[in-house]
Design goal:
By secondary structure, the chain is mainly alpha-helical. It has helices at 2-24, 33-72, 77-84, 88-100, 109-125, 137-159, 161-175.
């Protein structure tokens, strides 16, 4: 989880620095080679961190839920075997239900953000080819708007991956009425 926190903090800092840099050098001003290099370094770091933050966050969450399941369900090896093959999102509903008798609230912000975070991680780690069948200007606009909305969501998930993890942990703690 510490790698996720570090990546998120670095991402937020670098995005802010890049925004300030861009404000300082308006598009109509001539940017020298040193400034161009600095800008490209910032963009490269931002893109790298936008991948790293959700990957580290989901790795931490997956390690947590798998560890809890393997410790608590040690005497049920067949159940564990099937749970290991479940999706990460499914584990966050099924394992608390088995262990606590209640499940994570799928309508909560934390649960929705968890699923968005997993989707963001999957986008980066399991890329898929997309074919667009566009025949009109309206179709082009619709595809562009859809892409922009998903891109904005992915950027937000990366920027806030550490906060999403904390929110999921708080919701999980609320599910566990035993306090363990």
């Amino acid at each position: 989880f510490s790698m996720c926190v570090t990546a998120c903090a670095a991402l937020r800092k670098t995005e802010n620095e890049h925004d300030e840099f861009c404000k300082t050098y308006a598009a109509e001003q001539e940017i020298n080679l040193q400034h161009q290099h600095q800008m490209l370094r910032q963009v490269d770091e931002i893109l790298s961190l936008r991948v790293a933050a959700p990957v580290y966050a989901t790795m931490a969450l997956e390690q947590l839920i798998n560890t809890v399941a393997s410790e608590a369900l040690r005497s049920l090896p067949n159940t564990l075997k099937h749970l290991e093959k479940s999706s990460l999102a499914s584990k966050f509903y099924v394992i608390p239900a088995i262990l606590c008798g209640s499940e994570l609230d799928s309508a909560s912000d934390a649960a929705k953000n968890l699923e968005d975070l997993i989707s963001t991680r999957n986008y980066f780690t399991h890329p898929k080819n997309q074919s667009w069948k566009i025949s009109t200007a309206q179709g082009i606009t619709a595809v562009g708007q859809k892409f922009e909305a998903k891109h904005a969501l992915r950027c937000n998930n990366a920027r806030n991956a550490d906060k999403i993890v904390r929110a999921v942990l708080i919701d999980l703690a609320a599910v566990d009425s035993t306090g363990t």
